[in-house]
């Protein structure tokens, strides 16, 4: 936001407070004739604005707040449109892992990182959500943004998905602090009833890297800058929220 914008906004607010609206009305009317305020009028208005700002600085704060609110509303509107345009990729990508009724009319999408502590908080909340709401499913989009271990675990998850073990691997990775070494992941997969050697092999498949890249690109396009990023309908909720709040968002979609 430029100082000029702030100054003009403060001036507009001042017109309603100090009663100098007619001066600006004259400016608007004369602008149609190709003329403008006279130097004397401009000096008078500027003097009034300066005096009022000195006497009541809250006017400037109000102007800045109004501009910020306007910017935020504009950004939210643009983000909502972007999410609406991305609905097919968000809710209809058959490759994405999900929990809940696969034919549910309401889809909640979570962009998450297995190493994100707030994402770990959300995992049982999503499980409870789909258990309590048969009309809801939750789609998971892995975006490994928290370092090398996140990248390795995301590859392991999508490799486990090929064996039908995404949920089991997700639960294991998100409830333990152990670093995801190759031997650890192989043993973990075997313990979960998966083929550990196959999992390690599949983790290096370029197709998995491409899926993760696509997820990250989509998150950036939608203005998701951290995890978790939760989408319900066309609304983005940044960060962890309670099961109660999830229920309210879902109920709003059902109404």
UniProtKB/TrEMBL annotation:
CDD domains: DsbA_Com1_like (cd03023). Keywords: Signal. Residues 1-25 form the signal peptide. Residues 81-255 form the Thioredoxin domain. One of its GO terms (molecular function) is oxidoreductase activity. Pfam families: DSBA. It comes from the Bacteria. This is DsbA family protein. It comes from Acidisoma silvae. The lineage of its organism: Bacteria, Pseudomonadati, Pseudomonadota, Alphaproteobacteria, Acetobacterales.
């Amino acid at each position: 936001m430029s100082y000029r914008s702030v100054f003009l906004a403060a001036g507009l607010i001042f017109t309603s407070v100090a009663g100098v609206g007619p001066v600006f009305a004259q400016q608007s009317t004369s602008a149609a004739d190709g003329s403008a305020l006279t130097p004397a009028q401009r000096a008078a208005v500027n003097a009034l604005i300066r005096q009022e700002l000195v006497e009541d600085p809250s006017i400037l704060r109000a102007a800045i707040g109004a501009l910020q609110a306007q910017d935020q509303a504009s950004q939210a509107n643009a983000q909502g449109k972007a999410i609406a345009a991305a609905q097919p990729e968000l809710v209809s990508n058959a490759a994405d892992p999900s929990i809940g009724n696969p034919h549910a009319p309401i889809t909640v999408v979570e962009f998450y990182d297995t190493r994100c502590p707030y994402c770990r908080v959300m995992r049982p909340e999503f499980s409870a959500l789909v258990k309590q709401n048969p009309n809801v499913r939750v789609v998971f989009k892995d975006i490994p943004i928290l370092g090398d271990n996140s990248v390795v675990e995301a590859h392991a998850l999508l490799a486990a998905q090929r064996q039908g073990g995404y949920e089991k691997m997700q639960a294991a990775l998100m409830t333990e602090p152990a670093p995801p070494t190759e031997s650890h992941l192989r043993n973990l997969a075997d313990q979960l009833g998966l083929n550990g050697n196959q999992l390690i092999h599949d983790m290096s498949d370029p197709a998995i890297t491409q899926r993760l890249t696509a997820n990250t690109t989509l998150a950036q396009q939608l203005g998701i800058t951290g995890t978790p990023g939760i989408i319900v309908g066309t609304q983005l909720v940044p960060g962890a929220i309670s099961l109660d709040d999830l229920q309210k968002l879902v109920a709003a979609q059902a109404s």
